[in-house]
Amino acid sequence: MTGAVLLNVLLLALVALACVWLVTEPLRARTPDDPDAAERARLGAERDRLYAELAALTNESRRPDLERRAALALRGLDALPPAPQARPGTRTLALALLGGAALLTVVGAVTFVPRWQLASLTPNEAGNVQAVLKLPGLKAQAERSSTKEAYLAWGKAAFDSNTFDQAVTAYGSALKLDPRQPEALRRLGILLLTRGEQTGQAISAEDAQRAALLIRTGAQLAPQEPESQLLLGFALARFGEDQAALAALERYRTLDPKGRDADDLITALRARLNTSDPALRVYAASCASCHGPGGGGGTGPSLRASTLTRAALAQVITQGKGAMPAYPDLKADELDALLTLLEGWQREGQ
């Protein structure tokens, strides 16, 4: 456990201690002994019992006696001296702890609290936030040292945080020092290839070919790195090389079984290449526009996260539900194949 973590735990413990002290302080106040406590309790119980009997009385001949006895009990209670009150204990230490807690909370706001805020984000979102925070320092270090490693660290943080202009600068500088650096090659290539989406300007054919060359070269230099195959698959799909793109993306899934970045594109490529598959053909024609090419959700909910049974899925497909239209004209074999596909996606999950 690092010193920073220990400090954060200590701050939290002191704040909690101050809160517990204040909440329990009244319970620690000393109460003097009451010598009449037993008699006070007896008379009170007698009064309550007599009141209960009077409330439930059905024989009115007993009322005078009950009222007399209740009056005696009340008179006895009145004759007793007042019960001693708790003497307030000192609050000096509690208030001192409260003041210290306020001070420490301010300190914790710039140390421990940000970690709580990051904990509420997804791992990718938290990573992006941390990458943005690191950018100024990494940029300054790269410009100061001018080493390939420093430029790559800056480029990775910029790429992961979608600060693409800095990523281009950092990776370009890294390639000047090492023209065969795979990460810099493939990431510069994909940034060039998708520049039109970022700027709204169409990419020229020459730039598209240059981007493809960068990505291919990066994949050839590092074929075992999952990202090499992922970006190669995306690039090949852009150029209409569906078979090669599918092979690269399936290779990516082999190298990184937990990777889900290519699911939608893999499904779309399979649907285009395997038109004889009724499930993918029906899904691509009728479902993908709302539920996403790979069932991950779009304007419609994720089918991978669905918990509907096969029978319930069939009913929704054939009869519709809410904003979803019905597809009653599906052939039995097409519906059966589609249901099998959706059940497989449910087992795979998100």
From TrEMBL:
<feature type="domain" description="Cytochrome c">
    <location>
        <begin position="274"/>
        <end position="346"/>
    </location>
</feature>
<feature type="transmembrane region" description="Helical">
    <location>
        <begin position="93"/>
        <end position="113"/>
    </location>
</feature>
<keyword id="KW-0813">Transport</keyword>
<dbReference type="Pfam" id="PF13442">
    <property type="entry name" value="Cytochrome_CBB3"/>
</dbReference>
<dbReference type="InterPro" id="IPR019734">
    <property type="entry name" value="TPR_rpt"/>
</dbReference>
<keyword id="KW-0249">Electron transport</keyword>
<protein>
    <submittedName>
        <fullName>Cytochrome c family protein</fullName>
    </submittedName>
</protein>
<keyword id="KW-0408">Iron</keyword>
<keyword id="KW-0479">Metal-binding</keyword>
<keyword id="KW-0472">Membrane</keyword>
<keyword id="KW-0349">Heme</keyword>
<keyword id="KW-0812">Transmembrane</keyword>
<dbReference type="InterPro" id="IPR009056">
    <property type="entry name" value="Cyt_c-like_dom"/>
</dbReference>
<dbReference type="InterPro" id="IPR051811">
    <property type="entry name" value="Cytochrome_c550/c551-like"/>
</dbReference>
<dbReference type="InterPro" id="IPR011990">
    <property type="entry name" value="TPR-like_helical_dom_sf"/>
</dbReference>
<dbReference type="Pfam" id="PF13414">
    <property type="entry name" value="TPR_11"/>
</dbReference>
<keyword id="KW-0802">TPR repeat</keyword>
<keyword id="KW-1133">Transmembrane helix</keyword>
<dbReference type="InterPro" id="IPR036909">
    <property type="entry name" value="Cyt_c-like_dom_sf"/>
</dbReference>
<feature type="repeat" description="TPR">
    <location>
        <begin position="148"/>
        <end position="181"/>
    </location>
</feature>
